[in-house]
Request: fold
Amino acid sequence: MVNQQAALNTLFHALADPTRRAVISRLLKGAAPVTRLAAPFDMGLPAFLKHLAVLETSGLIRSEKQGRVRTCHIDADRLAAAEGWLGEQRAIWQSRTDRLAAFVESQTAEEKNP
Reply:
């Protein structure tokens, strides 16, 4: 359980940055070399590589090097873990709001028909 929480913390830390989210969005379209991933961003390659390192540490992406080209791939299972956690939270809050709505409706009905 502690390891799972730590993994989620690392995952959401990685997703907290807009540059890293943009990289994830790009990789959802398919694998890409680092130079192509870095091209749209106004930052030096060393700074961009730090973003990739955070994404790799979180497990959201993996990379492989062939010759001088390093290609990144997304790990959809890690994204599914984030989606699963968010879905659980959504279900909890939906249940709470449903109970609140039912309570308000019952109180309103009692006020109209004492």
Notes: The chain has one domain: 1-111. Residues 76-112 form the longest helix (37 residues). The two ends are 50 Å apart (CA to CA).
